[in-house]
Amino acid sequence: MKTFAYFVEPALYSIDLSVNIYDKMNIGYCFIKDNTYSKSSFNKNLVYLSSFSFFSRILFILKQHKLNDNLIINGYNNLPFIISFLANLFFLKKVNIAIESDTQYQIPKNYLKRFVKYLYLSIIFRNKKIFGFAGGSNSHMLLFKKYGMNTDRIFLMPLMVNNSRFFTKKKVFPKTFTFLYVGRLIKRKNVESLINVFNKKFSEHKVVLKIIGSGREESFLRNKYSSSKVIFLGPLFENELIKEYHSASCFVIPSLFEPWGLVVNEALSASLPVISLENIGANFDLIKSKNTGEIASDMNTFGDIMVKLLIDKKILIEYSNNAKYTMQNIWNYNYYQTCLIKALKEIR
Predict the structure, then answer these.
(1) Which domains can be identified in the chain, with CATH numbers?
(2) Coil vs helix vs strand at 57
(3) Is this model's pTM higher than 0.90 or not?
């Protein structure tokens, strides 16, 4: 059975996944958008739907529907999914459409949004030719179940980065304890709260907080908080970024919400313990069940955990070793490929 995949954007993690899994399994693919925040130096010729005219995009999507038996589509509210779903409704040929999603199950507070979401997802998730490829095994799978998809059509498709990029033979902790944040500098990422907690808890300790990333709040945060202990490094990619992972002591992700948080994968692959706020999608599969760090219910507790890992080197090293083991032996490309092969067999 022939399979084709639609990735959203040419981010480093999706390019790595396509090269290390999809190319080797002879699965064709393209990218919906041609721009991404997470840059890559990869120079292989790639297909971008966004470079086509609107009419040409429709023809391309219909062609893949005609030529393939299975379609894997990142998300359920983009043009490839909508056209493919409609083609299944109105054409004689029906293909299997797998929705690969990192979305956690959440009920919108706005009643109109709640109704529209329920109506839309209930219609598509109950269709027997639609399958769920959930990025995680907890709330990501729950999303499909809550909106009517039978459990026999839901599969774990673990969210991945190329772990080997971040591996180090032996983790060496720096003399100056270093907390590391990597991500966009926007409100939802909660970086200002992180800085305030850090300044409050470590005013008398020889500790630094490095912040990597850019965004709407960058100028404000730099002007207000930049110091010898709070260091803004701007956006870094590939080797420069990996170097900072290797030279840190502990990774922090204080976001108010993340569907997943692939920076957690990157940090753990670099043998870094992770401190996470509770609404991060990666928590259940990569931290809570693996003893690779700790999860905080609020920012005050977050700060207490930061102090704990500074003081207790034994538990810091334990989390570091567990992080390395998890990403080298459990949550890796071999696991993804096993899940993908199993899912395609079950769908067939």
Answers:
(1) 3-160+332-347 (3.40.50.2000), 164-329 (3.40.50.2000)
(2) helix
(3) yes
